[in-house]
Amino acid sequence: MAQADIALIGLAVMGQNLIMNMNDHGFVVCAYNRTVSKVHDFLQNEAKGSKVIGAESLEDMVSKLKKPRRIILLVKAGQAVDDFIDKLVPLLEAGDIIIDGGNSEYRDTTRRCKSLKEKGLLFVGSGVSGGEEGARYGPSLMPGGHKEAWPHIKDIFQSIAAKVGTGEPCCDWVGDEGAGHFVKMVHNGIEYGDMQLICEAYHLMKDVLGMDHDEMAQAFDSWNKTELDSFLIEITANILKYKDADGKHLLPKIRDSAGQKGTGKWTAISALEYGTPVTLIGEAVFARCLSSLKDERVRASRSLSGPQGVKFSGNKAAFLEDIRKALYASKIISYAQGFMLLRQAATEFGWSLNYGAIALMWRGGCIIRRLKNDDSVVATLRI
Predict the structure, then answer these.
(1) H-helix segments, 35-105
(2) Residues 217, 221, 224, CA angle at the centre, nearest 5°?
(3) What global pTM score does this model have?
(4) Whose CB among 54, 78, 213, 230 lies 3.0–4.6 Å from 249's, allowing a Cys bridge?
């Protein structure tokens, strides 16, 4: 019997949290995972006592869905998405909706839109930002693809999304084809830039001003009460404060080598492809690449020691304020460059992107969100 409003495939933590978020908002969700034992474990533990139902197979899942059927895929980007789509197509009917909530490459989303349209099915590629906590309590959602699907998923998406201001959801329709995933890609690129800017501020505070970790934590705490108020600044202060079991600060013990999942790199590649100078995000990607060359850097340090004995003798408070202002100015530049790339992509692909709405979607739920929902950056971008 059809009883579920929507199904979700992929029961890793993000998938489980998104299911429970939808359940909290009154939607009946059918959970499925390729390893069916995970479905049973989920129903007996995290989803126990909820309205969530499980499925033993894709056929079982489809039979439990109200029409038009709505199915979210939260599986690894790439071949796994195509594999599930191929298995679902024979089980679905015209007008049914498949939603890819992973970090897919936008060209893959465009290809899937075209392929499924020919089969009478609707496809949505949606950026989902906010990590595990966002998925559970309110992410920023950036859906794009077949707009005919939007009326059928709008209520669910805007109900579970983060809310800001007077209750506006951090979710709106982005545009056609791969627009949703392109916007999410640029969001992640801006996140790379934000993190690199914080690293450079840390470097100046530590190596030029000679500040210890507690002093730096205090500085970031105070900055979080200014225009820099944001999730990333907040967690930076917390990370700087954090001490290991031996009572010493943990941060200096962490290997200075950063990995990446690819979305920042895709942003830089797109910038080159479309001739848009997204310089800050590009340098942030290269900084991660450099950091990964740990063995080479250690060997080089034996021959090239770098600057020694840099001591600042000026007004420490004034210099610290200059760092704060430089960080804020650089952040605005990074956002502006990201939106330049969005504008160029819209021209390339004929997308009608609502830049103001996109900026508003990033006020809450996502990693680059501002904690107090201050509109100063948003207002700058909308001018």
Answers:
(1) 36-44, 58-63, 79-88
(2) 140
(3) 0.89
(4) 213
The predicted structure's pLDDT at residue 370: 65
Q: Which residues on neighbouring strands pair with residue 126, listed in sequence order? A: 143
Could you tell me how far CA 56 lies from the centroid of its own chain? 31
Backbone angles phi, psi at 123, to 5 degrees: -125, 140
Strand partners, 276: none
Tell the residue number behind the tokens 């910038």, with chain if given: 271
301-324 residues labelled b (16+ CB within 10 A) or e (exposed): eeeeeeeeeeeeeeeeeeebeebb
- Give the separation between CA 10 and CA 218, rounded to whole angstroms: 41
140 forms beta bridges with: 129
Q: Rounded to an integer, what distance in angstroms lies between the CA atom of residue 334 and that of residue 120?
A: 40
**Within 10 Å of residue 147's Cβ, how many Cβ atoms?**
14
- Residue 324 to residue 201: CA distance in whole angstroms: 8
Cα dist from 78 to 81, 142, 174, 260, whole Å: 6, 19, 22, 16
For the chain, 383 residues long, the average pLDDT of each consecutive 10-residue run is 91 96 97 96 95 96 96 94 97 97 94 96 95 92 97 97 91 95 93 94 93 95 92 92 92 85 86 94 92 91 80 91 96 93 96 90 81 47 42
Mark whether 184 is an active-site residue.
yes
C-beta separation of 228 from 197 below 8 A: no
Look-up: residue for tokens 């080598």?
257
Edge-first strand order for the sheet with 122-129 is 53-54, 29-32, 6-9, 70-73, 97-100, 122-129, 140-145
Residues 320 and 310: their CA atoms lie apart, in Å, by 16
Lookup: tokens for 340:
């330049």
Q: Pull the structure tokens for residue 335.
A: 């956002």
Question: Catalytic residue among 191, 215, 253, 372, which?
Answer: 191
Cβ pair 55, 30 in contact under 8 A: yes
> What does the alpha-carbon distance between residue 302 and residue 297 come to, in Å, rounded to a whole number?
9
In sequence order, which ranges of the chain are alpha helices (DSSP H)?
13-24, 36-44, 58-63, 79-88, 106-118, 131-137, 150-160, 179-203, 213-223, 231-241, 263-273, 279-291, 294-301, 316-349, 355-361, 376-382
Q: Which among 38, 184, 265, 331 is annotated as catalytic?
A: 184
